[in-house]
Amino acid sequence: MKADRAGGKTTPCAARVLSRHGLPGLAAAATLWGAAAGAAEVSAADPIASRFWQDKALYAGDTNMLVRRGVLADRRERLATVWARATGIGAKDPIEFFLIGLPSAHDYEAIAVTPAKAEAIHEALTFIGVQPGHPVRPERREYWPKGERVVAHLSCPETDPPIGPVRLERLIWNRRENAPMPESGLVFVGSYRIDAPDRSDHGAYAADARAPFSIASNYNEPTTVLDVPRRAPQGEVYELQYLNPRYVLPTQALVKLTFRPERPPADPRVADLRLDVRAAPAGTRGDPAAPRFSISRTDGSPLVEDGTLNDMLAAFLDLREQARDPFVSVHFADGLRLAALRAVCGVLESIDTENGIRIEPPPPGQLYYRALLPDPAYRNRAARYTQPWELELTQPRGAPAPHATLVRITEHWPDAQALKPELEAVRYPVPEPSALGDLLRRHGPGLPVILVFAEPDMAYGTVMRYLRPVLDAYPTIYVFTSGRSGGPARPGA
Questions:
Q1: Closest to 338 (Cα-Cα) out of 390, 291, 272, 306
Q2: Which residue, of 302, 335, 370, is where some domain finishes?
Q3: Which of 178, 320, 346, 407 is most buried, taking the most CB atoms under 10 A from its CB?
Q4: What SS3 state is found at 99?
């Protein structure tokens, strides 16, 4: 469906889409929005439009009230209200969205559709004091929905008896758990802005400009305004979440959704933290190979200074007991040995969970912690579905610097009937760290992926001297700390 952004109207195409999905009332509403240029032109058949003009007149000049089409926000009460229409989805239909915008063609898997702009709902939530974060964007290694949470309720006065107000989560039934979705609130991730030819000033709001035009999703939709507070990839939760049969809503029924902040502004749920991991200094009591941990807030004040693993875990546990969501930026010191670092990353993986911490994307010049926890199957060249680069690093005892070799693996298919390709490996000596980028450009580009094979006692900083200059072009790195990938190789020119 297309929207006329210049005029703020929905084209007749919207009505056709809504009619095709069995929603003639919503189709009529789409046409009405396109025609409504003022209060005198609003039909009484559209109570959402009528309410907008009534609220606009009622709260004119009141700086504590925000009025937008389909949206009313009250700063004093810290309450945002959104009006929508029920799609009429049945209890046997999988659900992916609590609420979508009018341009969306996903009403067959949504509970309600609103004429309100997603950006207007974003504005309303910030107006009542809720701070947005960011949506899940795996390509940026943002795997957790981030932001303050809201408590959402739905009411439908047109059912007999009327429904609600009921927590929005209770409308979703999880077939695997045989229970409603947990009442954990929704995360105000806030969508993001994208380039748009007609919005050259600051771009278009993604939730208003890109399908699926999600406002509140029950999976991790990258463009949504509100998300669930957990990892919920679309492919993993699809067909697990259905409408709770207790809350079947008639098609076109008017529904009211309300959103309140979960916590007061002075007590935010999100805790932005920095975790520094370094090698123990000489003379440290206990295990000299055990790393040391420091945790600091964004203002630099410490939670843990040069502590043990147990100190780190205790600090994170204390935050979780306060119902805080620690979002942690992890910094590894160059002096850490790979074997010790791999052990630390194993611990981080075990606590990077809904009830633990949420690890942020790696800072510039750092590896994502999962780079130290590669899938062992990647060692086997023949078992890979495609071939990344390989970087071998060895440092004989007493040698001043490591021996580095770049390996390019090329697949050759001997004939059309071949089930597997023949692999050719070519080795290129890397005389110094700065030469790696030149070799990759000269013999590549290839996949933007490098598998590193290094010795367990090699320092993280030694590996990173090779990788830091090429991280922007080759962002996906996996580091193996023992063994090599197999297969013969010939020297390259």
A1: 291
A2: 370
A3: 407
A4: strand
Owning domain of residue 363 = 274-370
Number of domains in the chain: 3
> 83 and 185: one domain?
yes
| Paired tokens of 67 | 């009025």
Radius of gyration of the chain (CA): 27
Same domain, 384 and 242: no
Backbone angles phi, psi at 387, to 5 degrees: -115, 115
How is residue 16 written in tokens? 């056709």
Nearest-angstrom CA–CA distance, 446 and 147: 37
Alpha carbon distance 209, 160 (integer Å):
37
> Is 267 inside any structural domain?
no
Report the relative pairing of strands 71-74 and 254-261 from DSSP bridges: unpaired
pTM of the model: 0.86
Which of 205, 229, 261 is the last residue before a domain boundary? 261
Q: Which residues in the chain come in under a pLDDT of 70? A: 1-45, 196-202, 282-289, 483-493
What would the two tokens of residue 476 be?
């996906």
What is the spatial distance between Cα 71 and Cα 74, in angstroms, rounded to a whole number? 10
Of 335, 332, 350, 349, residue with least CA distance to 289: 335
Query: What tens digit of pLDDT does each residue of 39-82 get?
Result: 444 455 689 999 999 999 999 999 999 999 999 999 999 999 99
- Residue 266 belongs to some domain of the structure: no
Spell out where 363-402 has E strands.
Answer: 389-394
Q: What is the pLDDT of residues 260-315, one digit of tens each?
A: 999 999 999 999 999 999 998 865 665 656 899 999 999 999 999 999 999 999 99
Q: Is 103 inside a domain boundary?
A: yes
- Domain for residue 268, yes or no? no
- Count Cβ atoms below 10 Å from residue 480 Cβ, excluding itself: 21
What CATH code is carried by the domain that includes residue 417?
A: 3.30.420
Give all strands (DSSP E) within 218-318, no chain letters: 226-227, 241-243, 254-261, 270-278, 292-297, 302-307
Per DSSP, the chain holds a count of helices (H) and strands (E) of: 10, 31
